[in-house]
Design brief:
Layout lengths: L9 H4 L29 H15 L11 H4 L2 E6 L4 E6 L12 H10 L6 E6 L12 H6 L4
Parallel strand pairs: 2-3
Antiparallel strand pairs: 1-2
């Protein structure tokens, strides 16, 4: 979360329902990992799931570009929660992409095939906007851009 307290305008400081992120929590916050340092999912399994998710994402292609969405740089963030929910933040090459309504479902379906993932939530963002700079060298090579 951004702390906007130093940049807020006087009008913004009079808004209702502002949460003071600098205030002490009302109750202690439980640690995200147990005291022994191990998370709910063993590190070896996280490594395997990571490799499998990348492989699954590489099976999803933008129909207008002959390169998978992972190599294109359309995947911004992937998080595996302790309850095995996989959260994927992605973008498209352009907001007007003809498959904008379908591609998040393709990503969800692909990730749901990974053993160890209970469910997948895909969110679409255009901030920051995608640019060709996000492509891997492999994608550039496939598109004759090297």
């Amino acid at each position: 979360m951004n702390d906007m307290s130093s940049t807020a305008s006087p009008a913004a400081s009079r808004q209702r329902d502002i949460i003071d992120l600098g205030a002490a929590p009302a109750r202690p916050i439980a640690p995200e990992t147990p005291a022994d340092g191990e998370g709910a999912i063993p590190a070896e399994e996280i490594a395997r799931i990571t490799d499998d998710v990348v492989a699954a994402l590489k099976q999803v292609h933008d129909p207008e570009i002959p390169v998978d969405i992972y190599e294109l740089g359309l995947i911004y963030k992937v998080d595996l929660e302790d309850d095995r929910t996989l959260k994927v933040e992605m973008t498209l090459t352009a907001p007007g992409c003809p498959v904008a309504g379908e591609m998040p479902g393709w990503v969800q379906d692909a990730c749901n095939t990974v053993d160890g993932v209970e469910r997948t939530e895909v969110s679409l963002t255009f901030d920051p906007p995608w640019t060709p700079d996000r492509m891997t060298d492999e994608a550039r090579l496939q598109l004759n851009m090297l």
